[in-house]
Amino acid sequence: MKSATFCKSILLSVSLLLASSAFAATTYSFQIGNPVNVNGTALKPGDYTVKWDGNGPNVELSILQGSRLKAKVTARLVELKAPAEKTEAIEHENTGRVNTLTGIRFQGKTTTLEFVASDAPAGVLLVVNQGDADLGIVDPHSAQQVARIVEGATTGHEVAVSLDGKTAYVPIYGDSSVGEAGTDGRDLVAIDIASRKVVGHLDFGHGVRPHCAVMNPKDRMLYVTTELDQTVTIIDPKTLQVVGVIPTGQEQSHMLVISHDGRFGYTANVSAGTVSVLDIPGRKLVSIIPVSTKVQRISISADDKWVFTADQAKPQLAVIDTATNKLKTWISIAAPGYGTASTLDGRWLLVCVPGASQVSVVDLRTLQVVRTIPVPKVPHEIVISFDDKTAYVSCIRSKKVAAIDLSDLSVKSLIDAGDSVDGMAWAAPVAIQQIVSAAR
Predict the structure, then answer these.
(1) Domain with CATH 2.120.10.30 in the chain
(2) Residue 10, burial from CB neighbour count under 10 angstroms (0-12, 13-18, 19+)
(3) How far apart are CA 411 and CA 416, in angstroms?
(4) How far apart, in Å, are the Cα atoms of 288 and each of 208, 229, 247?
(5) Is 220 exposed, middle or buried (0-12, 13-18, 19+ CB in 10 A)?
(6) Residues of the chain with pLDDT under 70
(7) Which of 18, 121, 114 is nearest to 438 (CA)?
(8) End-to-end distance of the chain based on CA atoms, in angstroms?
């Protein structure tokens, strides 16, 4: 008979060392009444102290016995709907084995600690809420938006994250959609994710409608589409100074993707219906590829072989061969597509189909749609988690982000976001992302 496991709550004696009416204190003491494991470390019964810095949503906990460090574990600060009625630790009971300590609740507090398993990816999902002019922080484990940071300008559409996972960069596009009359944004704001504050600002000097921001791990620079100048602007993310530009040669260079080797960039030029190919190290335009009368969004396959952009005149997706910089073929879909993203294993291409409120799944071996996944209204953009387990889909007219389980291609949760949720990005150090990716 298989060993059964189940979750069990047991009462711990926990005393607050630094009192506060909220959860500002970062040091608590508690007692363990029976042996438990935490993050691979065995803890014997006795008195312990738990300490952490920061206000989440993910924090690094230190568990000490006296002055000796006994264990370290990542924890999430999760808000309860009501204050906890009692102080208790949450154990996962393992039949025939030592139980695992998985979290702690505190009497009278609405915030609880949930320990993150050592094999769970660190990081948070950032979402740009266009209609609210703020940046949301989503805890992917609890599937909740846990914080919102006001940008201070109208309004960002997209977001990129520094390579150390600490800073978000939001270009301020303006109050309209691409090609429409409205304000011409001229700013970019930098947001410290831990403190949840705007900590930096770049003024482009004139209205450029900055839109899509992409970090290039190879040269460690930030690349931002600056539509009205028909350029991609290169920014040093440490100093927030412009260090160069690359001409796109086309109007409305709205979205940008950079090859994984950092050598080439590709912009989707909306009203021009073209894709510009950019030499990143050389900072020059290589080619302009005709696609349609109008295109939207752009992505690249995991092996850098294909670039994809969505035809807005017909229900089809353009496939561009990066070896020749020519249109290779078309992928038929149910209605005109929008944002796309390839899974990291190179198996699937996911395509937002706003008019059908679905995500189409393309088999990259055959370039054929093999499944459709219903999602809330007007799916817009897709981000793949760096462990390649989940695809997040912003649904701009629904105030929702759909989380798709890539193991069975089904929606596993719907996350409440803000008004006109649009661009998304992962906030986690690149080193962690590479380690998790290599372990897949």
Answers:
(1) 124-199+294-438
(2) middle
(3) 14
(4) 21, 17, 11
(5) middle
(6) 1-25, 40, 56, 92-97, 116-122, 429-440
(7) 121
(8) 31
What pLDDT digit, counting tens, does each position of 355-382 carry? 999 999 999 999 999 999 999 999 999 9
What string of H, E and C letters represents the secondary structure of 20-49? CCCCCCCEEEEEECCCEEECCEEECCEEEE
Q: In sequence order, what E strands does 227-357 have? A: 231-236, 241-247, 253-258, 264-269, 274-279, 284-290, 295-300, 306-311, 316-321, 326-332, 340-342, 348-353
Per-residue pLDDT, 430: 54
Domain 124-199+294-438 has CATH 3.40.50.300: no
Three-class secondary structure of residue 190 per DSSP: strand
Q: Which residues of 299-320 are buried (b: 16+ CB within 10 A; e: fewer)?
A: bbbbeeebbbbbbbeebbbbbb
Separation of alpha carbons 327 and 314, rounded Å: 16
